[in-house]
Queue: 2 jobs
Job 1
Amino acid sequence: MSSVFRIAVEEWRLLRRDRVAVLGLALLLLLTAVAGFTAWEQRRSSAAERARHQAQVDHEFETQPERHPHRMVHYGHFVFRPLNPLAAFDAGVDAYTGHTLFLEGHRQNSANFGDVRQSSLLLRFGQLTPAFVLQVLAPLLLIFVGHGSLARERESGTLRVLLAQGVRPWQIVAGKLLALSGVAAVAWLPALLALGWIVLATPTPLGLAALLAAGYGLWLLLWVLGIVALSAVFARARDALVALLAVWAVSVVLVPRLAPELAASTLALPTRFETDIAVARDLAALGDSHDPNDPYFADFKKKLLAQYGVGRVEDLPVNYKGLLGMEGERLTSALFERYADAGFERQAAQLRLVDGFAWLSPVIALRRLSMAAAGTDLQNYRRFVEQAERHRYQLVQQLNRLQAEKLSFAGDRSSRDSRISPEHWHGMADFQFEAAPPSEAFSRAGPAAGVLLGWLVALAGLLALATRRLGRITR
């Protein structure tokens, strides 16, 4: 048996005798298992509820009686964001963004019913998911288990004895690393099993689950290296414990909370009230389709009559009101899209500022990687909103086209002749969300993975310096 493995086995033996360490590890495993089960059950029930509501509103839309097409434009429709299976592992921003969109003509609404708005403030600290347990609680357990791995040997004098017997410093450090890595692997195992279950039970790409597993494995390895390195630097175990707890509090709790606040104050988003005023001002500048003297729509009418070679809208082969509705919707939708893009780009800029703090707090990089792989980051939410907006625009324009083609201009004024049969909108409102390919998730996770690897190199260098320092003890 090599010296490295002997040291690791001895460390495991000491840990097994430490009731606090054993109890802490058992509680962490239990908490991870409970978090995985409850998050999966919550995700399953939420997905089923959204699917049920989507089927209900689809049915209600298709079973509308004979109506004027523009009445259907204002009747509107709901779409619900489907849940990614890996959201059971890391809910990401889903709890903050909302999941229900109301689609209607002449407006672009925001998603509603976010979990944070309907829950207590405790949800803002973190949801009980495997990701939260590994990000916040697992490092805390490793600190209490491993803070004295080398400092304890120095305090008791056994470190000098080992060195005097010819055991090399790197062998001692490697044995401690192996022992603490074993504890980290045990803490990581329930989350790994949860990912395996998700892959087997759902059509989740294996590569994304592997990316999550590798990211959290790297995260725990960072803490193993850092804990052993600081334990080698300090002469007393309690000093190492205090220093490690300070590092955990700053890097895991303080910086991830302060960074978004600093980004939000540096690049503040306009309020909903300010945005509504700006949109209303720009809408007024576009023109009023109901005003026959409006310059833009008067010119639109003139060009349309010239295109068809007629002198009056009554002589057009299509219903002028439907064409007018299509042009108005085209203009307003382009305006809504411009404001939505500006808002998302502003939020993306805020995220880039937050990412800069990942060199102070690697948990920020881990969260970026985790949410990208789980499909619960801002980019995936934006993908849903943009697809829903395209669907809204197509739905409204289809209804406007029905008004233009199925109703005459003269009959459009008659309550009896201004209705069409409901089979015209059967299947029209069906919405199918297209998830991003796994390659996009890997691309977005790449920079975060690079930050974590940079931390790995830095901590490995710190550990190498601490190991060299241990060799001077007997000199």
Job 2
Amino acid sequence: MPPWSPAQAALTLALLLGLQPITTDVYLPALPSLTRELGAPMATVQLTMSGLILAFGLAQMVWGPVADRVGRRPVLLWGLALYCVASVGCTLAAGIDALVAWRIVQGAAMAAAVVCARAMVRDLYGPAEGARVMSLGLSGLGLIALTGPLAGGLAATALGWRGPLMVVTAAGALCLAYVAWRVPETLAVRNPAATRLKPLLQSWARIGRHPVFAAWSMLIACTYGGLFTMLAGSSFVFMNVLGLGSAAYGAMLALGSVSYIAGTFMCRRWIARHGTVGTVARGAWLTLAGGVSMAVPAALGVQSVWAVLVPYGLYAFGHGQHQPCGQAGLVGPFPHAAGAASALAGLLLAVVAFGIGHWLGVSLDGTVRPLAYTMCFWSMLTAAMAWGPVRRWAR
């Protein structure tokens, strides 16, 4: 029997995985004012997002094997303590270079929470039950993502660009306190060879070649590509192009989170009826509809809040199916190397996000088109992965 009920495991997952949207979403309403006050170019400001995500992915390659060797709980405590220190550094940063540096440290520390959360699902549950528990946990994450932009928008309005970073610092401290108080060790058997370089490289090679891992990791990389496009570019589009204030922009992102939560609820129903492969195949239609319906009005010159927000709601609903199934599915074949598998998938996501951040830094042109076309690109790739490799290999 697992040490927790599914509800307790889902709560812990929501808090640990929720640290990522807290770190990104709460911060978004501050980006336009930060750009003005620090006099920073767009490409450098994008590094506060893309640099954080790249560090997040690379650090998972370290935290994952360490968690397989020493256990999940020590890595969580070390990582969250470092996260709190980095969050304070971000809040007090005097210039854009210092902020970028502290955000990179913050991303590396955040990786400990996320990689351990994914691995803990595999510690406690098999792939099918793990997908249901992951879906429940991601519903809770959706609630966090719902309140994050609202809190960030209000904090930015009241306190300027440092306000959202104060909220992030407080959230990190609360998460550290919860782990210290309530989270036990879930790894039954530690792997003393997990951090040895040669076996580690062999393990990563074996994981990377596994068709089930390849299918699920490509799916979540593509669906996350669209999500990160919205995270990195939407504040400039909604606030600078479409004229929304910080609080209104936060409310717009919160509506997308509502759709994501609804998607995770539907995911649990569809898993019971159609399995994980059938679930993501159905979700892909919604993802594709979201991307295409955002690109077409943009191509016709339509610049409206609703022409971006409604298609994003469709995309977010589909993301609510892809993410739980993919997160659980990619670690399913590796009960003794779940940390390493999770880390390898995280690195792929980080590389995708870094590329998107760089692209948006040079392509945002005062219209909605770069955002809309990039969302459409990732929606088409996500559908191709769901209907191709996942259907072929993950079944």
